[in-house]
Queue: 2 jobs
Job 1
Amino acid sequence: MREMINMIVVLTILGAVSGGLLAATKDWTDPKIEYQQLTFVKGPAIKTILEGASNDPIVDRFKISHEGVDSSFFVGIFNGEASTVAFEGLGKGFGGDIGLMMGVNLVDDTIIGVGVTTHSETPGIGSKAKTDPSFTNQFKGMKMTAIANVDAMSGATVTSNGINGGVAAASKMYQSLKPQILEQLKAFK
Amino acid sequence: MAKTLVQEFTKGLWEEIPPFRLVLGLCPVLAVTKTVENGIGMGVATTFVLVGSNFFVSLLRKFIPSKVRIACFIIIIATFVTLVELLMQAFTYPLFLKLGIFIPLIVVNCIVLGRSEAFAFKNGIARSLADGLGIGIGFTLALAALGAVRELLGAGTLTFWETPIQILSPTIQPFTFMIEAPGAFVCLGLMLCLMNLVESK
């Protein structure tokens, strides 16, 4: 009996101490991990879109919740003014969701760039949306308030439609969130 | 015959160098040694876990009832592995992306559990630390050596800090077989053979 209790006590204490230690470490590393994930997963797309910004868009970010989902907005400061944000929208592709990073200038609502972050499209066909920028570049200069479908990539109709849909959905979200985005941007000068 | 602390440490480097002498923990050895860098990263992570778990197992060996010792070892090891995983994600994310699933799998690496059971549970703290460090460094060296041979033959480069350095002249067609899974077995076999040859001389 004594041995039994001893075993239970030792295992419980060991488990509790480990759990506590790990929880503390997780708390400490969480923001760092989030930053690393943003840098290495979404970073390349953000950097290309907000090229020439004088700040680090991955540091200067804020979150707005829209219909129960938190979206991150990355701020780009150009000529001393925080006029541009990049944020992620989702399109339905051939192999699942396509993450789309979109950069928008809030002054005149123009798209300054669209880039694919994560996808599971067919390598060599749908994946060209990410590797070959000429498709997503068609969105450049379009107004967020008047999104039109762009020419599809030949052979990758589903991917192209997915991206068209994703951009349209992101523009809806952008229009309903614009006042909040402008509010948040005041903090970045 | 009792060994000195230094002997406990150095035995891991040659006499009992894990993948070659004990032929234990082959899963990560074969899977991650595509480049030198991956090998070293995996080795350092394992060393950290080994030293930590050896230290705590040895520290707590008087309190751990022997009937539940394996469960206790696993808790200690799993704690350290999770620590490594979190720290790697926070500070060396690209390496974490490459090693991926093999980091959590250190929990079931027989070297780590084996050293706790066979050594740390029966020996004092200083000896256990020396043993863990020795075996860990031996494991790292073995992984680095295997990774270097495979990468050199398979891609003609050696990778340090994310930058592949071209060693073989690009005109030589690299022997791609070596960086694929079967190449790992062949390479390990050849290295075992070489070690036995050196030993028998």
Job 2
Amino acid sequence: MRRSTRPDSVSGLLRRLPVAVVLAVGVWLVVRPVYNPALAWVTQGVARLTEYPRATVITVEGSYALIGRLDLRAGSGRLKYSLTQVHFNLVPFLALCFALRGALSRGGWRRLGGALAVLAGSHVLNLFLQVKAFFAFNLGPWSAVHYSNFERNLIGGARYFSDIPVTFALPLVLWVSAYPDRVLGILGLGPGEDAGLPHR
Amino acid sequence: MGGVKKILASPAGRFMARYAVILSVGFLILALKPVNDHVVNPYTTFVAHKARIALNLLGENARVDGQVLSSSRFAVQIYNGCNGLEAILVFVAGVLAFPAPWLRRLVGVVLGVLAIGVVNVVRVVSLFYVGILKPQWFSISHVFIWQSLIILLSVVLWLVWVQRYAPVHATR
């Protein structure tokens, strides 16, 4: 009983982190064969919602997405894009969650599910922006005809923010947002916190 | 407005708000073209030179041309996103946002940036050798293993700094 009421600490979290990383990698490896086609299918649907004619096609080949258009000649360029690049940040996020003591108890599963939904949304957005950037920049005269300079700048900027800030910072932001009491508690910043002060 | 005031009334709320602002502004500044041309690209070239020195110490006879690091056996281009700046920003935002004396924040930033810089050179050098010895593993090592490790490194360094060097509630 005493164990369950003892506050978590930075040291405890760091001790559990290596095992949590292994667990997170295991989950990622198991989920990946299902997640890759699901991600491609949802992103294709989202891309088709934003265009006319609805010609975006995304197929999965191993851990890559092959992005193209149905209304271009068969020999036209297709983009081969690593889906691992899109969703690798699932691993650091899950590792941080698994390393947090009691993260899955008392409604923790629901919080984890909510955070994972946001992370999955960011993956769809990232792949969507890769599709749009491919169409806007890499299809030669077709790109020039169908995308203005303003649209190209907008897509390029959005892709940068999705590729770098969102991909790298979102795991940490979601971790803190999903478990604010626990994370801020171990930092000594929880509401009325004194039990969770870092142990020296 | 009342909700915002209530959030900002607590140390946790102020920390989270400061963290979000510093991180957003930091990434926004890095995205500006003049900053990219005069800071990010030169820093990436600097990373390439550090990796070249490490590789030459290992007898590789590497050279750098812009952001391309090459030897007679392999070549890699270091892109934005592989230069460690994103991990540095995630770490620095956490340190600057945390309630601690400014001198300790400064020490944290300097030591953390140095540590991330060193690990990033290890990343580039290790990927260079993966490219030479096991090229079929390069993609997974680059995209999956090292990027995940770099994110976790920035969080772990920040947690270690919080635990060891930032006396909690010292300043608000």
